[in-house]
């Protein structure tokens, strides 16, 4: 028997497929990286089935690529040389809500919106909001963050425990239900962000929060990006517990208006959101208003109405789609650097200059509260000159960030696209990471050629 025949014995035959359409769906993510077909796609329903599948992959020395929804942005789910894609879409159950412990246990195929729909019944919500309705397994694998990380933290901060199937089929748990622990190595921290290179996540226990009593959103326009970033620094230094603070440059605001049919000022703009009780929010908002006006804010508007607030954040989340829609025939490349907030204004100014000098279409957006910003760059993937220009531009902003103590990726992960910066960013620590990989995955079957 061959691998595919043995897989069909372990799983139901209809959950093992070589259908060309399904293979194509698992050959790509949302990035500009070149797609490659897997040899087979399997759809397990339990950790035990994942274990059996991985044991077979190990036996046949076949690469294993975990797959959530394919919304990643650095080629994480693209197979290296054929291999097996493990699709977790059938493992999509919310297993347990422990409302008194503010914890939830889920399978990896559960999406962010699916979880929040379930949690709403308990007056709870899950905070990490990367924009895309990604699966929680994929979000843990890439250590996703997003718009709310300035207040609530990133994916790694929410993970209390993971069930992981290791590359030789063993099933382990990396944590527990306790709020804190000083027992042993921090395995949660090793597996979150490992991008499927150390094992397959088959269950997650996550921290959740009470839905805020009151939510207020605001939009503040500025003459310059410097003014906008300085306003953010002022807000953070004042200790205002802001829940979201997002920056869009003037070019991005123009694209957003065209796509979302809004009429926002086409200037560098902060999108802000505040969570809390009514009395506390009133004080935070007044203090914020004073700070932004002191930093050159030209206009500020508050949204108390739920529909208007949702429209504001929908416009922000759709910024990438606005660029795609406005530039037919081109593919979106999203850069992703993060650096100390004191260097953010200079970084964004340098990035804007680099975009203009490249001649490519691009705008800047960012989770500026934690120093993370992106260039949304539209390129013709069949045009070698544009590809080269985009790579030079990306290298320029990464080098700027690394030189100031930053990172080449704040939330998208390494995948294929950021491998070449790993040695410069991590130095000798990169060899330690490789040793982890070699010990856990001696046959190098787990998502090979990613990160390293």
From TrEMBL:
Alphabetical list of SUPFAM superfamilies matching this protein: FAD-binding/transporter-associated domain-like, FAD-linked oxidases, C-terminal domain
MF terms (GO), sorted A to Z: D-lactate dehydrogenase (cytochrome) activity; D-lactate dehydrogenase (NAD+) activity; FAD binding
Record has Signal as a keyword: no
InterPro entries given in the database record: FAD-bd_oxidored_4_C (IPR004113), FAD-bd_PCMH (IPR016166), FAD-bd_PCMH-like_sf (IPR036318), FAD-bd_PCMH_sub2 (IPR016169), FAD-linked_Oxase-like_C (IPR016164), Oxid_FAD_bind_N (IPR006094), Vanillyl_alc_oxidase_C-sub2 (IPR016171)
GO biological process terms held by the UniProt record: lactate catabolic process
Enzyme class: oxidoreductase
E.C. no: 1.1.2.4
Keywords: FAD, Flavoprotein, Oxidoreductase, Transit peptide
Pfam families: FAD-oxidase_C, FAD_binding_4
Domain FAD-binding PCMH-type, first and last residues per copy: 33-211
Domain of life: Bacteria
Cofactor requirements of the protein: FAD
PANTHER family cross-referenced by the UniProt entry: D-LACTATE DEHYDROGENASE, D-LACTATE DEHYDROGENASE, MITOCHONDRIAL-RELATED
Family listed: Belongs to the FAD-binding oxidoreductase/transferase type 4 family.
Protein name: D-lactate dehydrogenase (cytochrome)
